[in-house]
Amino acid sequence: MEVEQPAVLPLQRIKEDDPLQDLQVEEPPLKKACTGLGVHAAPQPSPAPLGPPGDCPHTRRPLAASLVADRYLILEQLEGSSLYSCVNVHTQEDLVCKVVSKDATSLLTAHYRLDQHPHVNSLHEVLLGDQLVYLVFPPSHGDLHSHVRQRRRLREAEARRLFRQMAETVLACHDQGIVLRDLKLRKFVFADPQRSELKLETLEDAVVLEDPEDDVLQDKRGCPAYVSPEILRSHARYSGRAADIWSLGVILYTMLVGRYPFNDSEHVSLFAKISRGHFVVPECLSSRAKCLIRSLLRREPSERLSAADVLLHPWLSREERYSPPPPSHHQDQLVPDCVPV
What we know:
- By secondary structure, the protein is α+β, with helices and mostly antiparallel strands.
- Helix content is about 25%, strand content about 15%.
- The chain is built from 8 helices and 12 strands.
- The strands form 4 sheets. It has a 6-stranded antiparallel sheet with strand order 1-2-3-4-6-5, with no helix packed on it.
């Protein structure tokens, strides 16, 4: 079957002065799915058969029958993810695969720098073709967004254990000169069936800084619910690390409360709320949890904690035993009011 060679298309701009012209929408909110910003993100390249590394034939097969390097059978794209499921046809091992254009050097560099980190998905194998690169990873056991949606909200003991792992991951990235940009719940997946260990699924959209001391960025990436106020300003330059910390605050709030701190069905109204920086923290949360949330969701980037300071916060230093709740089969996506921890 003859198929055109895929190409990575540039984002289409809304207006020249639109501050969100590069913003991508990927993760649906817990209550209402993202419908887009009028911006079309670049489509993910589809897998193509691949011979030995360096050989990328033009003949391509249907997705369900794409055989890469005579070893990996590429199957369907995972729901809510840019990864494909795949199987090693020789060992029958289940894996996942990300297909990127050959010029995605920043992604590869980021993964190589963090490949030994316990909370970053490790590269199982990298296959290089003429046009595409195939990154093969171990499989996961569900993502954190789906977990929070299913549980409606997490109790502080579980949220603390998971959030500590996320903060450690963000610190490691920042120390290696990597800014994540599109940081959100769905980017974290579970490494074990018990859902106790997290890992960052991929470093897609991450930026490897040329100068680790200079994290000033100008392009805009992210899901609307997670973007920081400074990103919404027209032609704004912003600190990438501080923007990551804001996203961490959104993640923590959502885990503990079960809804986003800034939420609206209309993006214009949503961005206005984010720009004002006003949100309500339920009284049922502990004082230390409320303190950490407010320390992360500071409207002024310079007032936010650094990733290193987050790990020193009293809420994270508190140790307590966590017992997973019994399995729930409730699939209602609507989040109830906050209940006592």
